[in-house]
Amino acid sequence: MTDVPAAPCFVHTPDTHEFWLKEAPLDQQRTSPLSLSSGWPEQALVFDAVGTAWRMIVPGAARYRKWYWRLASQFYNPIRFVGISWEALRSYELSELLAVFRRQVSIDDDCLTQFYEAEEIYRVLDDCRSFDDILAVWRKLEAGDEGSPS
Fold first, then answer.
1. Are residues 76 and 136 in the same domain?
2. Peptide bond into 25 cis (omega under 30)
3. How many whole angstroms separate alpha carbon 89 and alpha carbon 70?
4. Which end of the chain, N or C, is less packed with Cβ atoms under 10 Å?
5. Is 63 a member of any domain?
6. Residue 85 and residue 98 in one domain
7. Hey, CA dihedral for 62, 68, 71, 75, is it positive or negative?
8. Do 112 and 72 share a structural domain?
């Protein structure tokens, strides 16, 4: 197993609306002090292209969890690039990623379902047999092309 996920990766923070595609470079991420103060990177579950689930680690992020950073980030919260290291957690089954995608469609606030109805997306996801199939659905939803998302 390598020490970096195979790009692209789907990033999901459990119990939130957060679900997005992370492409290379994987050694950095745009984020803010407010996100770091909430422990966001460590909470995110990252599904890579070859079946491994990962956790992001931002070296030095713990300093943002101090009370004064939490307070300051409410008023001054610039977006910046931070370095990332990675921790491989486990292998994942394609069905787990599909379940996350389906759940995100069900709670979507018109990002994933902006151009397609949820039922159309579910139907196409049911036919996915590989990470590349799921990625193709994502790209279609992102582009908003006319017709079916298949």
1. no
2. yes
3. 28
4. N
5. yes
6. no
7. negative
8. no
From CA 83, how far away is CA 56, in angstroms rounded? 10
State which residues form the domain around 139: 94-143
Q: Which residues pair with 125 in a beta bridge?
A: none
Cβ-count burial of 5 within 10 angstroms (0-12 exposed, 13-18 middle, 19+ buried)?
buried
For the record, the structure tokens of 60 come out as 């030095």
pTM for the full model?
A: 0.84
Q: What is the DSSP letter of 109?
A: -
Cis peptide before 8 (omega within 30 of 0): yes
Q: Of 7, 5, 57, which is closest to residue 36 (Cα–Cα)? A: 57
Q: Look at the chain and report how many structural domains it folds into.
A: 2
Tens of pLDDT along the chain (150 residues) come to 568 899 999 999 888 888 999 998 788 777 877 777 777 777 889 999 999 999 988 887 777 778 887 788 788 888 888 888 899 999 999 999 999 999 999 998 788 888 899 999 999 999 999 999 999 999 999 888 665 666
Assess whether 87 and 23 both reside in one domain: yes
